[in-house]
Amino acid sequence: MTAPNTLHSSPTEIVVVEDKNEDRKSIVFALNTFVSPSHIADFAHEDDARAFFERINASAESSWEHALRLIILDFHIDGHNSLPFLQRLRAGKVTRHTPIVIFSDSDERADVRKSYGLGANAFVTKPVDYEAFGEAVQSIADFWLDNNRV
Length: 150
Fold this sequence. Notes:
Layout: E1 14-17, H1 21-34, E2 40-43, H2 46-58, H3 62-67, E3 70-73, E4 76-77, E5 80-81, H4 83-91, E6 100-104, H5 109-117, E7 122-125, H6 130-147
Parallel strand pairs: 1-2, 1-3, 3-6, 6-7
Antiparallel strand pairs: 4-5
Helix pairs in contact: 1-6
């Protein structure tokens, strides 16, 4: 995780769950470049992200519900698909209404359908080109943070 996040620090606005180090760093860099100062938490492993979300979903602090604005979740994490994790996020008190964008190497129609079926708000295939990758993250941020209302 980039910066330690506790329930006593500034609430996280954006969470990135991506096991590929280069992709995770690129996503965070793009968000920091294109989004006004935000509190971003990034996780390389599902277990760490799960523990973080369990803490905020169990918290009685309503500031978390209003602060968490976007979750960017890789479709394949820690050697398996992240659909069970997506399902758990949708069951959480705070995360059930938070926009979740699946950002994936996959462009398989079945993966897209399953993701939407379990509550993903969007499914974006990661571009291979570095510049296009940054532009995709910028588009995600522009729509979900600037134009969308939850």
